Amino acid sequence: MKIAHIAPPWIAIPPKNYGGTENVIYNIVEEQVAQGHDVTLFAPGDAKTSARLVSFFPRSLIDAGVPWQAHLKSYYHTYKSIEYIKEHHFDIVHSHLSSSADMYTFPLSLQLGTPHVATLHSRFPFDRVQEWSGDADDFFLEWIKQTPLIAISENARAEVKLPVNIIGVVPHGLPMQQFKPTVNQAEDFLVWLGRFVPEKGAHHAISIAKATGMRLVLAGTIDRHIASSVDYFERAIKPQLDDRQIKYIGPVNTREKIDLLSRARVFLNPIEWEEPFGMVMIEAMAVGCPVISFARGAAPEVVAHGKSGYLVKDIKEMKWAMSQLDKIDRKQVRPM
């Protein structure tokens, strides 16, 4: 098949450190190329891909210093991608909806003669800037309803209240030949990995570490373009860091992430929101690291309670789950 992927232009593919949607797109594209499909990836020029790369500017927007709220270059990328597709033959177009600027794809692709499917990587509403949200999603419905959507979990599908056309659920996957444990024996520390925002729960991970006396390694990104992310880190996280029990090591790339999760005793996922999937959970389990997660969002679909980790409802239950970790066989955590 001749497949076109329109990637969001904000974060490099694959991402240099954090970027769930971008990792997913990279893995899908590489696997489709490996299966013999003719794949074209529309992404900024810093993408690394085995597919044919079509770019309209050299650097992903965040790396170029463009804040999330500045949509013009994102619009240009989407418009030029669709114009290119109109002038060339493709069997299917796959777009990816993860931030508000990606919504432009729907009106722009309306007259596209090629079949078009979009994966819903995030949650409605997309008309939002930090804590503010508007009602523009309702205005976009006349175009969104005409595009088949794929959800990434049953929970994500159930969370959609708008009358859109969700045709199925396709959970994320991983290249298991890449995600292999780097050690035979885990070390005695906890790990949290993600974006520093309250709903990701790094502050809860710190509470668990202090309650159990175990070391905690925090890894991930502080989005300097989002004031609330910076404020959360400075207020709730930074004062707790001592470089002994509670340590922040900064963002990690894929190789570093695989090694960190391989060595960790457990990955803590104390989320405070209905996360549509949670890539780090399957990345941890792929290298044999059990997961303890609040039972929210897609976590109950991802974690097998008592086998690959534990699903809990609060900090008290998370502390209990810590005491049960010896019952988890790391060889059974990693799917074969």
UniProtKB/TrEMBL annotation:
Database matches in InterPro entries: Glyco_trans_1 (IPR001296), Glyco_trans_4-like_N (IPR028098)
Domain of life of the native organism: Bacteria
Listed CDD domains: GT4_AviGT4-like (cd03802)
Signal peptide: none
This protein's UniProt keywords: Transferase
Domain Glycosyl transferase family: 178-318
GO molecular function, one term: glycosyltransferase activity
Residues covered by the Glycosyltransferase subfamily 4-like N-terminal domain: 18-174
Pfam families: Glyco_transf_4, Glycos_transf_1
PANTHER family (UniProt xref): BLL5217 PROTEIN, GLYCOSYLTRANSFERASE
Protein's name according to its UniProt entry: Glycosyl transferase
Organism expressing this protein natively: Dictyobacter vulcani
